[in-house]
Design brief:
Length: about 450
Amino acid sequence: MNDNLFVDRRLFLQGLAAIAAGEVVAGGPASRITLADEATKAAGPAAADGTVRPNMVGAYGPWLSDTVLGDGPAALSFRGPHPKEGGRFSNVNEWRAAARKRAWECIAPVNLGGVPEARVDSTTTLDGLDIERLSWQLPCGPRTEAVLLKPVGATGKLPAILGLHDHGGNKFLGWRKIARADDAPWTIQLRHQEQSYEGLAWANEIAKRGYVVIVHDTFPFGSRRVRVADCSPRVRGDGVDPEPDDLEGIKKYNAFAANHEHIMEKSLLSAGTTWPGVYLVEDQRALDVLCARPEVDASRVGCAGLSGGGMRTVFLGGLDDRIRCAIAVGFMTTWRDFLLDKCFTHTWMTYVPLLPRDLDFPEILALRAPAATMVLNCNEDPLYTLAEMKRADAIMHDTFERAGAADRYRCNFYPGGHKFDRPMQADAFAWFDRHLRS
């Protein structure tokens, strides 16, 4: 995410023009293209006469994309040749073991201990759901707050979902972006759900279908956010630590938090870790809490999220086998897309130093093959170029096909911009039902 777009990224996105025209079917699979087709169709960073098309890094774009990153499969891609033809991996299990090992090395995960001791802080019933407000203390930072939702009167072991909230340029909110725990939601919460989810708290909606759902605040959102008062005066700017009803104060806080992202990134790298090295481990600890619940069938657990939640799905779904069904919404493209065209509008939380040499971005999620995987994109989503979203789909499809699991991967394209609206939610919920309830 661009630090200059901190007040409300959704309003910024609504003002952008559509990226490119493309033939898609709402709610249905995209018309799949081959990588060869895409290479012919997509405009490269440099024309035949040597002129450079505008990109994020100017004259350095062609060199970084074509020479440093390269246009072929990355070093640890499963899409390379078979060992009999000079390749490295003869089967998907071999590939997954080697590629995950390298991914974890690059991510440099922190140690956040074992299964957290979750405390039930309050209980209530709302709209057919039993709701528990949970919290737990990790070895660092403020206490993590979370919400658990399950159908009233449900018996036996139920399938479960770890709901992953988005980024959205709003670090004041965490789990409240996608869930409701009472009949008096905050104004900022309702506005966020209206902007991104067509007014629905999607975690509540999927729980009503017979799932146990946990949504937690991850680093550094909601209860886990960085407090302005705890920071050096040099970096506070006009930031404040507001109350939930102080809408102007929340804008100021989110402005501070956006401008603080590059500082946090530098500090994490200086500590020898990465941003995914923290939030991915926090998501795993929340998954520990979910799987340990007595009403949960730990063999039928999924995760999903929009935007930053889709990014979190890519990492958690690709690197933790407990996720049997993963749905990434509004966060799927290639490292090339970030490099040349779209890094300006994405959070520092996305990037893992050195990993692009070994795996393209979609291949992180593809590490879960042959487990059930869905990707939902929007044709006019200004956070990505349409050509690279389709290129990412082709990479995912090729990987799952080589793993003998083409039927366990689905990618849908929808009209419109960056969102997880009701039709998209309906398709996602049906995918969960197919793979976790049947």
